[in-house]
User: Fold this.
Amino acid sequence: MMTQYVHQPSFMTGDEFSIETFCLLNPDGELYEGAEEPALTREHARKLYQAMLATRILDERMMAAQRQGRLSFYMQCTGEEAAVVGAAAALDDADMIMAQYREQGALMYRGFSIDEFMNQLFGNELDYGKGRQMPIHYGSRKLHYMTISSPLATQIPQATGYAYGQKLAGEGHCTLTFFGEGAASEGDFHAALNMASVHQVPVIFFCRNNGYAISTPSTEQFAADGIAPRAFGYHMHVIRVDGNDALAVYEATRQARKIAVEQNQPVLIEAMSYRLAAHSSSDDPSGYRAKSEEEAWRVKDPLLRMQRWLAKKGWWSDEEEATQQETLRREVLETMKRAEKRPPPPLESLISDVYADVTPALQRQLDQLKRHIRRYPEAYPRGAKSLDLTLSSATDSQGEA
Amino acid sequence: MATMNMLQAINNALDIAMAEDEKVICFGEDVGIFGGVFRATSHLQEKYGKARCFNTPLVEQGIIGFANGLAAQGSVAVAEIQFADYIFPAFDQIVNETAKFRYRSGDLFNVGGLTIRTPYGGGISGGLYHSQSPEAYFTHTPGLKVVVPRNPYQAKGLLLAAIRDPDPVLFLEPKRLYRAAVGEVPEEDYQLPIGEAEVIKEGTDITLVGWGAQMEVISKAAELAEEQGIACEVIDLRSLLPWDVDTVAESVFKTGRMIVSHEAPLTGGFAGEIAATIQERCFLYLESPITRVTGLDTPFPLVLEKEYLPDHLKIFEAIRESVNF
Assistant:
């Protein structure tokens, strides 16, 4: 860039720029004047909405299950379904998604089955993650959805690296990474954006600005006008979108993907939304925000908006809504019962996958553990079950398993 | 065979790996056209292009975060951290991400293609922040492999093995030896095994264990002891994680005495792990306490570096005390 010299000092704050919010549908599901409907087929639009609905219902049921003590922990996507599913719907299904933890809607959209969700939530023998991570840490290789990691923002520079590999592979794919406005305070966020811009990487940074990082409101997270202006500092394309408007999110992400894949340029998307639910099952928002604030956002429910638009198009009906809800609730309950009953992963899974091959040192540790469990099976019911020990009769045993 | 210093051997290993597999990508601060501040990546950008060998912005957490993603995608990422002293901004990415990638996903995803190269160690008047030996932070992290070569031949063979290993490897390069260590190195491709120690000198009276640059110091102490009629068995661990317990234990069964030496501070150092394991294995064979000869429990000094370092004389004294216990 050419340096322009001036001879009077002047300071800038960023207020010189204002970033608009892209939106297509009003809360009644009608297109704003001058808004152009994205080219979504009936099929695609219905799939998008159905994933939003399924996510809402899964979340309601599983939160209830957590409250009943059937599940140790849960996190809801509630209120942010349009942002998450709208983005996923604009990608190629083989594009990589690297999520934070509240984006089960994207996985739902890609066809992760309710059984697959349940197996992870209950950490049973069919969980792909082998019962190693807390509930909601999903991952799917076949659906190109990177396994969730609890540390915040670590996935953001990884997305830059992953997308760099995609660029070199030259197959026209990109990576989209989700994160919250709180995670954007982490160093990893800044490292990721700068590197993506410098190395011209096809990655989409999708910020769900939902107003809260646990209890900390976004006003105490940053002083600037949200996350979007940060893109300027990295010379990156950026768009702010109404995160409760699935059509707008879809269209913004679709165009972002074009920039990423066709120009090898990163894009930052800031989706403005609201976390209608608690941060997690361990959180109680009544301690830090007013019910009236939540109510104001409930009116802007992203599901209602999309549903109304579909209904106006004649692509969805109240009857279908009722039937779908009923079917989904039943499916969730039935699969939950199945998943709960499945046995835990075997004892050997304690030491597998630390390395590609089990090391002799780890094998020794497992053998020692097995001997111990054989002496005290009651104290380790899962391990004992895995070793086929009948509780109370087997109190001692010789030899190795 | 060619005569190479350690940097040339490392450069040669990278060259072979990049020529063989176009998925091998080298990057880090100043790694591109300049070839790294120590020149370990010299000419690689010229040969393989900017897309496969490049400078990164100055952000260690970003370098390793990027490397994790790149490796997860299926590329073979060889990331350089300019000095091991500056690896700590990337600690979270290494400890929480690199090391746990395979385990937490149930082997759906892994970053086995990742090798992190970084110069470590003192003896170059580098003071606090160009001298540290941070290996023990990483040996406490299941999922990582930690490898340290002692000479050019070892560096090339172990680095090629690290790059091709199915698990992520932290490859610590003794920078004091970068140019100081010169030796015969085959020009062709070869690998040395990760996880196997090497007995570099046989002896019957006492076992001396170390790795990296410390092997030179240990060997010098062994020569002094030899003059006094003490036959030392010298073992280069080569891999700290996983480490070769059997080779060390076999030696101690024979000698009944052991000294472990490293530059890093005493408390919490990896020598403690070796001592604990060997006393469990060899308790009834020990003739004297296992001794550690290490740096002091201080930050790494500058002017008094010579006094701080576990040199050959300190090791020689420890040998005498052990033998005369």
